[in-house]
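User: quick one, fold this
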Amino acid sequence: MYQDGDFARWRRHPWHGLEAVPEGADEGIVQAYIEMLPSDTVKYELDKNSGFLMVDRPQRTSATPPALYGFVPKTYCAEEVAKRCDQATVADGDPLDICVYSERLINRADIILNARVVGGIQMIDGGEADDKIIAVLDGDNIWGGVTDIADLPAIKTERLQHYFSTYKLIPGKTVDVRVDCVYGREEALKVIAAARADYNNHFGHLFAEESSAA
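Assistant:
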């Protein structure tokens, strides 16, 4: 029988109610909330107010994400993330995106998983830093031993670069996206740390107020 405190009475907000790093996790392991699957032809995104997954837009092209796609909870891309990008002075103001490779089919989104960080792509979208962390499912039988971007087949990263350079294409409209810079695990961990610092700088006071009120 469940006792008080054994489970959350209400569902936690995926962005604000979950942790970036699972309790007791090894270095380089983060928690990821998954919004999209490689089979999705519709762009799903978390509704920031309600915490529910919503339809953002149908994809105009036939491209689908090459990996599981979501974000790291309690991260935010603002001043500290922008400092790590020489070609941008601002960031996109969203949680830090993450792409996770899994050998086994995962056929539903709106889930959380533990991911091992291996690298990232420094995406610049309309002049804004919009980094994409690259990771593998922790414990995966094929990819679980990968520790850095160099351990992944190059085509895996190339497909992500192609997807993010084309998924916003609209006929007759110029899209200003750059995805040329790929970095390894060490820089990816620094980007995550910067995004966690940005989150604390922008949202930490809200939770401190809640704690003091309780």
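User: anything notable?
Assistant: The chain has one domain: 29-213.
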